[in-house]
């Protein structure tokens, strides 16, 4: 926070700036003092400038000197004072322009700070709302905290039980690790035995493969011979089949011819059977007639024999 400044401090700072040949301005005085608001410094600079003429007149009171020298010194002082006043008026105009610029800047800063203040008030309202919500959340959390204490106690019990279970499991794990070591040792032994057995089996398999290759070569040779014999037999069988087909064709022709002959013979035989049947019927009829005549001829003869005997 900026501290307050006095008129005496502003006067001393302005005198010091004027002593080095520069025009005391609000910015230079404020820089020299290191504090102070522009409005306050402007007001005190105006007071310093209003007192500057009186101070210069006090300084113009010279000791007793010859009148001509005194008049020359007063004229020189008057000219210097006039020049100084004109310089000061020019500087004052520039300072007033700078002051107007500073005031405009201050107005803009004021608007900016008012906007920030309004935003801060809104933020305060929001913070108040957030605080209310936070207080409500705190009350809720207090209730949850009480519940969490009970839950913590329950969790501690569960932790103790789990700790006991972990100790038991640790013992079981150690036992299982020992069993695992034994099993791994047994597995290594078994693996070595299996590897030896596999090597022996592989050796036998290589031998069997060699024998199988030899057998395959022999079988291939026998197969080639069998295929050649099969081809020869197939050729012979084809020739035999062609010959048999030719014979069958001739036989079929003979059978067809004989079938025709048989049909003719069967027709002739049927006609002959019809004729024979008719002849047999006629012969039987004739035989019955002859027999009847014989019977008729036998009866008168028997009658004559009977009468002769008497």
Automatic annotation (TrEMBL):
Name-wise, this protein is Integrase
Coiled-coil regions listed = none
The record places domain KfrA N-terminal DNA-binding at: 6-121
The UniProt regions of compositional bias labelled Basic residues, in chain numbering, are: 300-310
Stretches of Basic and acidic residues bias are at: 198-214, 221-231, 239-248
Pfam families with a match to the protein in the record: KfrA_N
What are the boundaries of the region Disordered?
A: 198-248, 271-310
Point to the regions of Low complexity compositional bias.
Answer: 271-285
